[in-house]
Amino acid sequence: MRMNKRDFVAIALVVALSLVGFLLFGRTGEKGKEVVIRSDGRLVGTYPLSENRELTVTLGSGKNTIVIRDGGVSVSDADCPDKYCVKQGVISRSGESLICLPHRLAVEITDGSEPDGTAR
Amino acid sequence: MARRIATVGITAALAIIFGYIEAILPFNFGIPGVKLGLANIVVVVSLYRLSLPETAGISLVRILIIGMLFGNIMSLLYSVAGGLLSLLGMALCKRLKLSVIGVSVVGGVLHNVGQLAAAVFVLQSPAVICYYPVLLLAGLVTGFLIGFACDRILKIIKDVHF
Prior knowledge:
The structure holds two protein chains of two kinds. Chain A is α+β, with helices and mostly antiparallel strands. Chain A has a domain of 77 residues: Sandwich (mini-chromosome maintenance (MCM) complex, domain 2). Chain A contains two helices and seven strands. In chain A, strands 2-1-7-6 form a four-stranded antiparallel β-sheet. Chain A has a three-stranded antiparallel β-sheet with strand order 3-4-5. The longest helix of chain A has 21 residues. Chain A starts with a helix and ends in a 10-residue tail after the last strand. In chain A, 32% of the residues are buried. By secondary structure, chain B is mostly helical. Chain B has one domain: Orthogonal Bundle (Arp2/3 complex 21 kDa subunit ARPC3). Chain B is built from six helices and no strands. The longest helix of chain B has 25 residues. Chain B starts with a helix and ends in a 6-residue tail after the last helix. At the A-B interface, helix 1 and strand 7 of A face helix 4, helix 5 and helix 6 of B.
């Protein structure tokens, strides 16, 4: 295995960039207040995280069933091929999100400070 | 010329087989969307043994065919973005005299960055960016493993003429 100094510079750069990212986005602990659902960049709806509910988002290409329960949100069912959105499980903290790439769906949790649910 | 085309075709077929193996037997890292990227072995090796345009052709053919066989239009878009950025970055790093492993690491990382950029563009959702630190590290690990394999392969096929 032949590696040189430039390799380690590149690797160090990647690690540094991801550490910066963890510091910027890795804020955990704070419970979110609102669930913002977006598909194709358009706002589908904003729902309080404290109320239990189940809703189905239908897009031209498919369906995702989103469940809000006990202060957490998850995608319980989807007809996309990879089902990554379902596998991501339950999220509850502000800044976390569930993504379904094939259906262009994003379920994000915010702290409710921006009532229109636009970008942080 | 015919010989070059045949070489590129066979190499692209090999990349497609690797992609196929990974589609039926995924190496899951527990992170959504993270793959080992076996087909990148072929791309990295051909970057060192064939020309850049030939490698670009192999990469593009692989992405299109794997995308049509196992994906959909959306996943194809992410793959093209990741594949192109990855190849450009690897070509640059090779010129900057990084080793095979370094080149492969940069390729793995940029593959994820390109896909994420496409996802941000398609979803119009800034929240997707929060995945980038994880994807960066994942690309580092998979790129290293692929690079290690490529280093060995290049040694083994050193005397083979294409």
